[in-house]
Design brief:
single chain, 13 helices, two-stranded antiparallel sheet, 10 strands
């Protein structure tokens, strides 16, 4: 698929599929016949999806789409956010970029406070690693490869945005610590997890989606931080990425797809990891981290993902949420399901890079139905000039069952939710699954 019109239509279909999702494996009709993000839970799945969608909106200059994303954040923050942990940090990445497009000092304060919490409040493992704390359990002494995307990209972006070199240094440190314990120097691939309680890599699984988090996170970190990236760290992570992608080249099926266990052709095929590999490799080539010789891997993966997208925008053959496995059969038994939003961001970003020279897709013109009006994109507030701007004074924002206004943010503890019992009710999915 090389025609920009075809790619644009596919992007429209996938983005509409995201708009129809209310939760993991739960869809609903488009709300009000317009592009309204309906995903109910503030967690990693929608956080990853919104990051891809926002990056696509920036590339295409789609202000209506940016307004729709802002509306979702306004809704979620007003209703109250869940307790802080690794997976609930994921939506903060898109928010840390969205604040460049909307005038919300209260959101800026939230971004800064959450970044500070990662450094000072999140549980740490031996060697200062970010422990993979999730809503279901503490995962004492455990490092997971998911963590780098879920937390460290946000921390690095916040550091760049607010001129906090200490936050950038901590994000880079986490990449180095996780590489030490999760990267396999023999194959170049990454294990799903490591525990200091017994000092082992659990099932020693080269889990595909976990590896794709790394393929994406390394170039994203370097691109987000830019010239603030320490040269030694950039050089090191570049070599780590090249080793991984060289290994992937030998494990890709002829049709471009990858397996749930990368080195096990008897395990199910897996579309979300394949999309992640396509995006990460293209991104790394774009910014000079990888040579052009690796482009065919991404091109084949791109075609494999396209072949698994239905007319309704739902992506097929995506492995369901996957907690840590203690044997390889555990991963082989994870069922494939119609895609949660995990797969969509890499699809949107990859395809937008191929189509940005061609016709622009817009949320306001997708399949003939009207997109959101910037004037009513966020509870009727805003204006019609440029990006959405909130009315002044701003309405109260409810974060931990205490109502505050933008002018009342002297105490950073107002953003904290002490425990689950004091947090607002949110749906609960699987056990720390990635």
């Amino acid at each position: 698929m090389k025609n920009t019109g075809d790619i644009s239509r596919l992007l429209s279909s996938v983005s509409l599929g995201l708009a129809r999702l209310k939760g993991m494996n739960e869809t609903a009709p488009l709300a009000g016949g317009r592009f309204t993000i309906q995903f109910d839970e503030w967690d990693w799945e929608v956080g990853v999806g919104l990051y891809g969608l926002l990056r696509y909106a920036e590339l295409s200059g789609d202000e209506d789409l940016i307004a729709s994303i802002a509306a979702w954040y306004d809704w979620q923050i007003e209703r109250g956010l869940p307790p802080r942990q690794v997976n609930s940090t994921s939506p903060m990445l898109a928010l840390s970029i969205l604040i460049d497009h909307v005038d919300r000092p209260d959101w800026q304060a939230l971004v800064q406070d959450w970044a500070d919490w990662l450094v000072s409040g999140l549980a740490k493992t031996e060697d200062g690693g970010f422990q993979h704390v999730v809503k279901e359990r503490m995962n004492d002494g455990e490092l997971w490869d998911d963590t780098l995307f879920m937390t460290c990209l946000f921390l690095a972006r916040a550091g760049k945005r607010f001129n906090r070199a200490d936050w950038i240094d901590e994000a880079v440190h986490q990449f180095l610590v996780h590489t030490r314990y999760l990267g396999d120097p023999v194959s170049g691939l990454w294990y799903h997890g490591w525990t200091f309680n017994g000092r082992h890599n659990f099932a020693k699984a080269f889990w595909a989606r976990g590896n794709s988090w790394i393929t994406v996170a390394v170039p994203e970190l370097i691109a987000l931080v830019g010239d603030a990236m320490p040269p030694f760290a950039k050089r090191f992570l570049q070599s780590v990425l090249r080793s991984q992608v060289s290994a992937l080249e030998t494990l890709q099926r002829d049709d471009g797809i990858f397996f749930t266990l990368l080195d096990d052709s008897q395990s199910p095929v897996e579309t979300s990891a394949t999309a992640g590999f396509a995006y990460g490799i293209l991104r790394a080539i774009d910014i000079g981290l990888l040579p052009e010789k690796y482009r065919p891997i991404a091109d084949k993966a791109f075609q494999a993902v396209i072949a698994r997208i239905g007319e309704d925008g739902i992506v097929l053959e995506v492995s369901d949420g996957t907690p840590m496995g203690h044997d390889l059969d555990f991963y082989r038994r994870i069922p494939n399901v119609p895609a949660p939003p995990t797969v969509r961001p890499w699809s949107c970003c990859s395809w937008s890079r191929r189509s940005r020279a061609g016709r622009r897709w817009s949320a306001s013109g997708a399949q003939g139905w009207p997109g959101p009006n910037r004037r009513d994109a966020v509870r009727g507030r805003g204006d019609t000039s440029g990006y959405w701007r909130p009315a002044v004074p701003q309405p109260p924002v409810i974060l931990d069952k205490r109502s505050i206004s933008c002018a009342q943010i002297p105490d950073p503890d107002i953003f904290r939710v002490a425990d689950a019992s004091s947090a607002p009710s949110h749906p609960v999915n699987g056990a720390g699954r990635g």
